[in-house]
Specification:
Elements lengths: L1 H15 L7 H16 L8 H11 L8 H19 L52 H14 L12
Helix pairs in contact: 1-2
Length: about 160
């Protein structure tokens, strides 16, 4: 049904627009309903990811006289380098193994290890973004207070006071 309607619409468009208007994209509409009925959802036959990867490899071509061999060489280089990164130590950053997004190790001089200071307050790290001062409302203050009481092992004896 849809395929018949497309043909009629294109015939009517040919009466209005000049032949230079029509290219492959308008002709593609004739075949799309048939392809959708044969193949189902497009994501299972989508070539975009492969085409994008080929573009990535084509940008790395060194020898313009032998493009195919150069693409194969670059593909093998990337496969080998990716495979080798699995055997590096964890602290070595690679293309496929970047560190945590917001963790930069923190200021080690700021992380004091006092006796009696709960673990929850001695995390290394640094804030991201612009610094701003906020004041908690009573409801938010009580939520934060309960979170600390329930998640800090050193404060377990005081959990019963959280009523």
């Amino acid at each position: 049904m849809l395929q018949k309607n497309i043909c009629m619409v294109l015939c009517n468009l040919e009466k209005i627009f000049p032949p230079s208007f029509f290219d492959v994209m308008e002709h593609l509409l004739i075949h799309l309903p048939h392809e959708a009925s044969l193949g189902g959802p497009v994501q299972f036959r989508w070539m975009y990811c492969f085409e994008r990867y080929m573009e990535h490899l084509k940008k790395k071509v060194k020898n313009k006289a032998k493009v195919e061999g150069s693409i194969v060489e670059q593909y093998i280089n990337e496969e080998i380098s990716t495979f080798c990164t699995y055997y590096f130590d964890r602290h070595i950053k690679t293309k496929n193994r970047a560190g945590d997004r917001h963790y930069d190790g923190g200021n080690q001089e700021d992380t004091h290890e006092f006796d009696g200071v709960p673990d929850i307050f001695s995390q290394a790290g640094r804030g991201s973004g612009k610094e701003s001062e906020i004041w908690l409302q009573d409801k938010d203050y009580h939520i934060a207070h309960r979170y600390i009481l329930r998640n800090c092992d050193q404060l377990r004896p005081f959990e019963r006071y959280d009523k």
